[in-house]
Amino acid sequence: MVQRIVEAARIESLDPSAIPRLRSPERATVFAARAARLLQLADAGNPIAGYLRLMAALADAQQRVLTRFSAPMPSRESIELNQRHSMPIIPALTDTRDPAWRDVLSMLLDGIETAGALTPALTQLVARLRATDAAALDNQADAILALRFAEIDPASAPFIAAALQVVWTDLASRIDTKDVPYLDAPGVCPVCGSVPVASIVRVGGAYEGYRYVQCGLCATELHVVRAKCTNCDSTKGIAYHAMGSGEESDDEKAATAKSAPLKAESCDECGTYRKIGYQDKAYDFEPYADDLASLTLDLLMSDAGYRRAAPNPWLWPEQSEEDR
């Protein structure tokens, strides 16, 4: 199959209504596909294969919980209010978060235990999470959603984030995309207000050749014109970086970058990068999973002086005293 590549200038000239602006999460498969991709990447000899297998078990648990979970949908009045003010339609940072998310967390921990994925250290962590009171869990959820790094417990954060993902993915899968307003702020999910983790250039059907950023919380995908920074919207200073052996010639590096299924897209205007994958080069590419599994590329970008546009909610950096 030959992929149709649509250049940025051509996309800008098209009728915007002809390009699907949003791609809702596929409720029946969203976490199952993520789990399968994590296992595939782990089996390929990834340096953090053990962690990827644990996260695959967590994603499997998410899919099982999602099949029987249904959160209350926002009222029509709430939707219309957010539309009028160009606000996310179901914002994650809210004082009225459904307390059922903590029940989801408990079910996910049950799923991890059932999968037999517990090491002694993980057994202690699960016990600590189960013993944590509701207020403390909500405080951690707030810190994760607001990206208040100094307040986040890196060990427990992936499991708390996973529970929040189930809740908001459930909502996002049932929302009418026609109700979702346009936001003024670039790099923000118009469904839940969270930030994307990575982007994907898709193949097939109405999405052929278009680039979408995937929200790290609700898994909604938002179309963003290629050759544009997904963090600050700039079209200047965009460059692409791929992993190589470190010993290639300049021509070999260029060839590697051209054929790589995963790259880091950097922006000199804001000094950030976000990874981008190409489904025509790796059909099973899953933005969240592939981002998590490509830490070596993160190290390369850090050495080059760029910072991540947003963290992966399943891998939080330890904070040093000077960072706090």
TrEMBL record:
GO terms for cellular component: cytosol. Keywords: Cytoplasm. Gene3D superfamilies: FdhE-like domain. It is found in: Cytoplasm. Residues 228-315 form the FdhE C-terminal domain. Residues 19-182 form the FdhE N-terminal domain. Residues 188-226 form the FdhE central domain. Transmembrane segments: none annotated. The keyword RNA-binding does not apply. HAMAP family: FdeH (MF_00611). Belongs to the FdhE family. This is Protein FdhE homolog. It comes from Caballeronia catudaia. The lineage of its organism: Bacteria, Pseudomonadati, Pseudomonadota, Betaproteobacteria, Burkholderiales.
